[in-house]
């Protein structure tokens, strides 16, 4: 099968490209940097330069490749920023503007299936345990609302493009190598240093997924599963009050401090309040039933130990 991976050099993109090529697919992957062309080729795929926000660039790439399946993993999250809204700005454009161009080009190139990355951590607070039908937090404050709106707009385009079987994979918070919750990652360093506090009661339920499991699900979705939305996250929704001290123990960091929602919003932004104290728990049952999702790391507890190693007493 000929598969085009848009965003083939990111944290999820690289192993997805490598896994698809290893399974015998004819894989073409895009990158925005000429320096990454050799990286893609080293994964067993062909490489093409493409700017996901440039319509001519996207159309040229897709029409030249004429893929049967398109996998959209385009983001711009590799460079950290203290400003959450600015950090998400290009990714939001890739989700809204970029997805519109990509879906049009995929249809015109003859693709019959598109698998697209989205996020599972965007559900309306107070809705209880949630599945893929739960209401999204479209009216969320500040950068959260902007990001949720961009994600939902992208999802609708993927699902509603005529002639395309659209599959949306709502990843949980990724952890593992080359992520923020991995060795040397920003969140891991903050937890080890004791600078990431528990917000309020720490009741926000983080949906975690190891990078390897996100990759497995993405490769699986290329050829399996009905069109629709799937939560790709592990079996154990993680309250911040549980996972943050647990990770601090593994890393040998101090016990996390506790701060109020008001102080968190002032110091870190409104997103810290939403994720830390308001995010409802989410379910992966649909992905298990319909995609046959199987986890190498079914719980973040086991997964964190595998990624970081367990120090004595943790």
Question: What does this molecule look like?
Answer:
The protein is α/β, with parallel strands linked by helices and 314 residues long. The chain has a domain at 2-174 and 207-233 and 281-295: Rossmann fold (3-Layer(aba) Sandwich). The chain is built from 12 helices and 13 strands. Strand 1, helix 1 and strand 2 form a beta-alpha-beta unit. Helix 1 (13-22) crosses helix 7 and helix 9 (261-268) packs across helix 10. The mean pLDDT is 95.
Break the fold down into its secondary structure elements and pairings.
Layout: E1 2-6, H1 13-22, E2 26-31, H2 37-42, E3 46-49, H3 55-65, E4 69-72, H4 84-108, E5 113-119, H5 142-160, E6 165-171, E7 173-175, H6 186-193, E8 198-199, E9 205-206, E10 208-210, H7 211-223, E11 228-232, E12 238-239, H8 240-251, E13 258-259, H9 261-268, H10 270-278, H11 285-290, H12 300-308
Largest sheet: 7 strands, parallel
Q: What is the percent of helical residues? A: 40-55%
Morphology call? globular
The radius of gyration is 19 Å
Distance between the termini: 46 Å
Short description:
The chain has 12 helices and 13 strands. The protein has 314 residues and is an alpha/beta fold.
List keywords for this structure.
single chain, 314 residues, alpha/beta, Rossmann fold, seven-stranded parallel β-sheet, 43% helix
């Amino acid at each position: 099968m000929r598969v085009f991976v848009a965003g083939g050099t990111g944290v999820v993109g690289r192993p997805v490209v490598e896994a698809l090529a290893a399974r015998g697919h004819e894989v073409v992957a895009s990158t925005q940097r000429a320096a990454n062309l050799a990286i893609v080729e080293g994964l067993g795929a062909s490489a093409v330069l493409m700017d996901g926000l440039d319509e001519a660039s996207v159309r040229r790439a897709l029409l030249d490749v004429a893929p049967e399946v398109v996998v959209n993993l385009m983001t711009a999250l590799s460079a950290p920023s203290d400003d959450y809204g600015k950090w998400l700005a290009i990714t939001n454009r890739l989700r809204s503007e970029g997805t519109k161009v990509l879906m049009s080009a995929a249809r015109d190139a003859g693709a019959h299936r598109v698998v697209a990355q989205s996020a599972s951590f965007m559900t309306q607070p107070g809705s209880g345990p949630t599945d893929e039908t739960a209401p999204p937090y479209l009216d969320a404050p500040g950068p959260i609302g902007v990001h949720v709106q961009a994600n939902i707009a992208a999802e609708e385009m993927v699902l509603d493009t005529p002639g395309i079987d659209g599959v949306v994979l709502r990843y949980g918070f990724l952890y593992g190598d080359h992520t923020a919750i991995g060795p040397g990652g920003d969140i891991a360093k903050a937890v080890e240093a004791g600078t990431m506090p528990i917000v309020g009661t720490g009741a926000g339920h983080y949906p975690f997924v190891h990078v390897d499991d996100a990759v497995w699900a993405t490769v699986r979705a290329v050829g399996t599963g009905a069109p629709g939305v799937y939560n790709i996250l592990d079996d154990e929704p993680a309250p911040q009050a549980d996972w943050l001290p647990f990770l601090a123990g593994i890393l040998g960091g101090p016990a996390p401090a506790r701060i109020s929602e008001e102080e968190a919003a002032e110091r870190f932004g409104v997103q810290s309040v939403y994720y830390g104290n308001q995010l409802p728990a989410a379910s992966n049952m649909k992905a298990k039933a319909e995609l046959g999702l199987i986890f190498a790391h079914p719980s973040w507890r086991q997964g964190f130990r595998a990624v970081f190693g367990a120090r004595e007493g943790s």
